[in-house]
């Protein structure tokens, strides 16, 4: 787990590369390296996990015609090494990094199809005079790039690009600000700047020697294709085997490691497999809150006791709210997931004990765990008929938008996802900005995919939207930045692409099921698996999630203080939002999701203040 930089063109001949890699030194506290090829430079910051002594980067092939800088882990590197050796390749190290440069030699751009793991890398190809850049299937590891006149910069974090270029080269993108206010994060390919882009998950791009990119290529997509005719027990057995194998592969390490244990179903399952596979107690770590209603630490303690882990617990207090400035410094662009703060504090606490942990991220998206899936269940379980009266209560927010005098029109999965995955609704955003917007910025990353999934089951469509937007744009971004800030590697075995591909074949009726009381239960098949490992009451409980009591904390801030923070004399937020609309939000205590919306505005204001006026787009 590391930080990477690649610079092509004019900026490769100055000190930009040194500035860029130094700005992300936190991603790799164990070492650094820079390769200068004249027309291109590669740089690397290393967090040593595998082949601690021999994995120094950038790393070359046998004849020094290809060089790689790599962030991530390749879990099938032992198998690939044998294949490549048989093909005549000579290895000098035992690191998984060297697999990439030889795989690129052997299979070219299609090398990514052979890799099982999380990765972001850049390969300098001297023969083609090009730089090949790739990102893993699920988007676990980030890649950003900026194409400027005469130069292109590729990096793990936005901070590195900011360090490499003159401030006036970067201009704020109003569409990205609007997307942030809609979703709480900025989805790929957007970033906060007009001329900086995120490489989307499962994508590659190649730059020529002048930094000109070819077309971004998507090399993989998760295909939802339910397989019928199998028994429930057969499904559970295969899920069991596949997750166990993924966890086994994710345990490859030459350093001490542990696991995040929130007490939720997914992280508890991962810890249970780790405990079976290891011959020592697993070191587990959790973060709780003073407010008992928001803490799952008692469930984490239960799981720890069942599997005899070496458990460590931290508590987050309200005073830590002032650390929201850390989020602005860490994430490089506005990032509004309020669980980022406890995640950042948890990573800080864990990094003093181990260098790598496994987490349970991905279970909700792949196995149908989110509440928004349950709220939508009446729309498909009634087989296209108007949903029963009790469904209107569960769906009342979205129903109001689709009820007409002539009758009920069910919302599409896309409409349902938009309504349930947002902070400000589209109408609220237009009121907040004081202008009529031509399109909804929340759909920018999904619009080109909609035609490919219209025939999918309603639930599969919702999962697809989350995997392609929320998972990579929010969940995985949150964990990568927070963990790397403290030199900690986080691995996600539930997001191994073999696990994901299996999950995409499970019939939707095994994921979300109706309960005896007429309600709905998510992750049903995964809960059946968990029943083999945990008590019934541990498995079947209300989903809580990992966030902090934001409403309690925001509401304790005096109105005048909030107004001064957002609308004081030095406020820059009014370049993007209407002052009167902000005042209305601050005054309306009954506004839906008021605290979350105020949190977004506070984050945006802090980000703008940190970056000053140099990047402000004055024409917004």
Question: How would you characterize this protein structure?
Answer:
- Helix 6 runs antiparallel to helix 18, helix 9 (324-331) crosses helix 24 (594-611) and helix 12 packs antiparallel against helix 17.
- The protein contains 24 helices and 21 strands.
- The radius of gyration is 24 Å and the shape is globular.
- The strands form five sheets. Strands 2-3-1-9-8-10 form a six-stranded antiparallel beta sheet, covered by helices on one side. Strands 4-5-6-7-11-12 form a six-stranded antiparallel beta sheet, with helices on one face. A five-stranded parallel beta sheet has the order 15-14-13-16-19, sandwiched between helices.
- The model is unreliable at 384-394 and 402-406 (pLDDT under 50).
- The protein is of the alpha+beta class and 620 residues long.
Outline the fold blueprint:
Layout: E1 2-9, H1 16-23, E2 31-36, E3 40-46, E4 59-60, E5 66-74, H2 77-86, H3 97-107, E6 117-125, E7 130-135, E8 144-148, E9 151-155, H4 158-164, H5 174-183, E10 196-198, E11 203-208, E12 217-218, H6 232-250, E13 257-260, H7 265-277, E14 283-289, H8 297-307, E15 310-316, H9 324-331, H10 340-350, E16 356-358, H11 363-367, H12 371-381, H13 389-394, H14 396-402, E17 403-404, E18 407-408, H15 413-420, H16 426-433, H17 458-484, E19 489-491, H18 497-503, E20 513-514, E21 520-521, H19 524-530, H20 536-539, H21 550-555, H22 559-567, H23 579-587, H24 594-611
Parallel strand pairs: 13-14, 13-16, 14-15, 16-19
Antiparallel strand pairs: 1-3, 1-9, 2-3, 4-5, 5-6, 6-7, 7-11, 8-9, 8-10, 11-12, 17-18, 20-21
